[in-house]
Amino acid sequence: MEPEVLAGVIGFGGAVLGAIIGGGTSLIATKLSLSHQREQTNSARLQELGHAATETALSELIELARFLGTLRGAVVTAHIEDERPWITTAGEHLKNAELAVARIPDRKVRDRIKIALDLTYKYRASGPRHFFAIRWVGEMANDMIDVLSANIRRDEMPPLPQSVIKAQRKSAEYEDRLRQRQQALIDHVVVPDQDAPGQPSS
Questions:
Q1: For 136-145, 146-155, 187-196, which range has the lowest pLDDT when averaged over its residues?
Q2: 74: Cα separation from own chain's centroid
Q3: Rg, Å, the chain Cα set
């Protein structure tokens, strides 16, 4: 083969190989770019959903706090064992807030909110009157409002306030007292003797 022809073949082969490599590189770059764009879109979508969920939960909790501030008179002074309508209304706000919080992508925020949210349902540990329960739920709502507000501002998560720490302790003490009462009832239950007079024989 003539040197000129050989050089042409080599040159052509090199050009083809370069085109293949260049095309492959371009294809990989396009694929990576599309993947990155999808990730950015998904991230933006999650942020958008999280922001909307945070605002919904925040709105429900602010409404709850306002509602609790309107309670007066017999509702406040009633014994905690007497059911009062405010509990139903408060429960609706809390349920709506809980559903919204479940849509927040940040697990740390969800877990932090759950501490105060769970305590709101343990309001009976607050004291003998609805006054104490209303204050208890209000304090838990205020803590959740602080956490959600910090999340919207992208601030650091606030530490547990003394009101929540105190509620945790009171709740644990209340549950312990309930267990002790239940155990005392069990210990004092007299099981009838099957062979005692007057008992039907099997």
A1: 187-196
A2: 34
A3: 33
